Amino acid sequence: MGWIEALILGIIQGLTEFLPVSSSGHLEIGKVILGVKAENSLLFTVVVHGATVLSTIVVFWKDILKLFKGLLEFKWNEDTQYVAKIVISMIPVVFLGFTFAEEVKSLFTGNLLLVGSMLIVTASLLAFSYYAKQREKNITYLDSFIIGVSQAAAVIPGISRSGATISTGLLLNNKKDGIARFSFLMVLVPIIGANVKDLMSGEFTNGGGVGVTALIVGFVAAFISGLLACKWMIGIVKKGKLIYFAVYCLIVGLIAITYTLL
Questions:
Q1: What are phi and psi of 130, to 5 degrees?
Q2: Which one of 38, 139, 187, 252 has the minimum C-beta count within 10 Å?
Q3: pLDDT of the residue at 101
Q4: Which of 251, 253, 214 lies closest to 10 in space, CA to CA?
Q5: Rounded distance, CA 164 to CA 75, Å?
Q6: Cα–Cα distance list, 53 to 57, 79, 193 (Å)
Q7: Percentage helix, strand, coil, to 5, in the chain?
Q8: Tell me: the pLDDT tens digits for 175-209?
Q9: Residues 40-92 pLDDT 10s
Q10: Which residues of 114-138 are buried (b: 16+ CB within 10 A; e: fewer)?
């Protein structure tokens, strides 16, 4: 993988991690178009995911600091309850990661038929949430678990993590700004944990055929584009413009399926 391919894939990861269009699905499509072999790009995938985690931390550093301060009070306060909900939301994806890790990895083989089909699923979720009756409800403990199930389902390339979690929250009648914030904060620990687990497994000792320059370029590109996309997505959710992304996912999904069949 050269630095140009790394730049393109890094930008794709950064933008699509936060926009409800599936970063994993777009990365798989990008790899196929650029001729990057899936087995040689696992380390790169881990690195660019780490970059988008860092961009999330930068955007929400005040919220994260507030939550830590609340925890250090050692009281059952608002911040502690919020963290408890985040922990509950992590249960499904942690269970999936420890129980079906190899099965999940096997999905990332450039299967555009799977990606296209799941993008249509994402489009459906976004469309349903757009037309759902909106209310001003705060996220409950049960809501956090259900949203967590949606996050676990998003390990399938083509199902957008942000799209699935935000849509589920909206379908559960939660506040728009509240579910956007929760969606981005709930993913931090699972992604960091998954990245550390992968790096410690020893699978990437040879770099997966990706050079240091390509990794740096991909990281920087994913971080900068992720920073912009994260802020943009918060505004999009507040304005209720998710239907445009539903149309986009439907079109890209159909193109991916048609490309595979032809």
A1: -65, -40
A2: 38
A3: 74
A4: 214
A5: 32
A6: 6, 21, 11
A7: 80, 0, 20
A8: 888 898 899 899 888 878 777 776 666 555 444 56
A9: 567 787 888 889 889 999 999 999 999 999 999 888 999 999 999 999 999 99
A10: bbbbbbbbbbebbbebbeeeeeeee
The size of the chain, in residues, is: 262
Do 237 and 107 contact (CB within 8 A), yes or no? no
DSSP H or E stretch at residue 208 = none
Closest to 17 (Cα-Cα) out of 210, 224, 208: 224
Cα gap 71→81, rounded to integer Å: 9
Q: How many helices (H) and strands (E) does the chain have?
A: 13, 0
Amino acid in position 236: I
When divided into structural domains, the chain yields a total of 1
* Residue 132, Ramachandran bin (φ over 0: left; ψ between -120 and 50: alpha; else beta): beta
Q: Which residues contact residue 26 at a Cβ distance below 8 angstroms, ignoring those fewer than 6 apart?
A: 12, 13, 16
Residue 246 vs residues 54, 147, 150, 172: alpha-carbon distances, Å: 27, 19, 17, 19
Encoded amino acid at 97, one letter: G
Residues facing residue 122 across a β-bridge = none
Note whether 139 and 161 are within 8 A (CB).
no
